[in-house]
Amino acid sequence: MNICVYGAGAVGGNVAARLAATFPGDISVVARGAHLQAIRERGVILRTPTDEIVGRPVIATDNPAELPPQDLIVVGLKAHSLGSEAERIARLRKPDVPVLFLTNGIPWWWSHGLGNSASKSGTLELLDANQKLWNVLGSDAVLGGVVYSPNEVSEPGVITNHGPTRFVIGEPSGVSTPRLAATIAAFKAAGLNPEVAADIRRVIWKKLLLNASGNPISALTRLTGRQRAETPGLPDLVRKVMSEVLDVAASLGWDLRQDEDVQAILQSGGPSTSRDNRSSMLQDTLAGRRLEVDALLGQVQAFARQQNVATPTLDVVLPLLRGLDKSIAAE
């Protein structure tokens, strides 16, 4: 089973290291720059709280055209980078081969297979403006993935994992398929702790509750989760964003407001409040990388407008985050 990890950053690097260590000779990686060079020289090094894993991909490249057709493509790129890579990812696919997207927030393929108003226009303009992903790659290629794993690239070729790793994977249709089973089996063998989701969009909303509130506030303040929790006013701000995200989700048919896990998160004041981990968006801000603004907040606001749901807090945080992203792009 040839597997390509397309984008071996913090999350993709964790996946690549474990897969390559488990399936030597079957795993390829698409990366770039100093990170790619380090992977070529030493492999992908994953440091966990209890272990160090070294995976050596059979090919590490910044040119996907060098790779043969794949049996599974795992995409670890940020949401705003996907459109420019659609054609290169598509050329890696064998017929009927899945592409597992491990992206934060609302995914570009959200409308695939839905019968409600969210799918009337097909692709989501904010996330796939030129419909490249929808038309070139094809929404039927997609497996949805939700990541629960705190990681960062601590140096080129080295991924540091700060806690438990778990992946929730599902077909957008909710159907159990052979390609989903094969993906789960590969992830399980590599110790990536996969779970099958009967409704992957429900899991996406639940994770988005954390990302849409904690990530932007951490990026705007440059504070870790613990520091954010200790700053007067910020926990209340985080809760307000979470409540608005829950209202939007409920308006679209995914009502999580009575979920016990969600209630516990709301009471705790948001994600990662007991640790000094840096959120992925804070990592991107500090490194001068573009931010996943529309996947985390922009599309939520678009859904809210469509459903006539008020989001007064999100409406303030979103333009501030867009301003931060604009300043990073200018630099």
From TrEMBL:
Domain (Ketopantoate reductase N-terminal) ranges: 3-172
Chain segments annotated as coiled-coil in the UniProt record: none
One family name in Pfam for this protein: ApbA_C
Superkingdom of this protein's organism: Bacteria
E.C. code: 1.1.1.169
TM region positions: none
Gene3D superfamilies the UniProt entry points to: N-(1-d-carboxylethyl)-l-norvaline Dehydrogenase, domain 2, NAD(P)-binding Rossmann-like Domain
Statement: the UniProt record of this protein carries the keyword Oxidoreductase: yes
Secretion signal span: none
GO MF entries: 2-dehydropantoate 2-reductase activity
Cited InterPro entries: 6-PGluconate_DH-like_C_sf, 6PGD_dom2, KPA_reductase, KPR-Related, KPR_N, NAD(P)-bd_dom_sf
Reaction(s) catalysed (UniProt annotation): (R)-pantoate + NADP(+) = 2-dehydropantoate + NADPH + H(+)
Record PANTHER family: 2-DEHYDROPANTOATE 2-REDUCTASE (PTHR21708:SF45), PROBABLE 2-DEHYDROPANTOATE 2-REDUCTASE (PTHR21708)
Designated name of the protein: 2-dehydropantoate 2-reductase
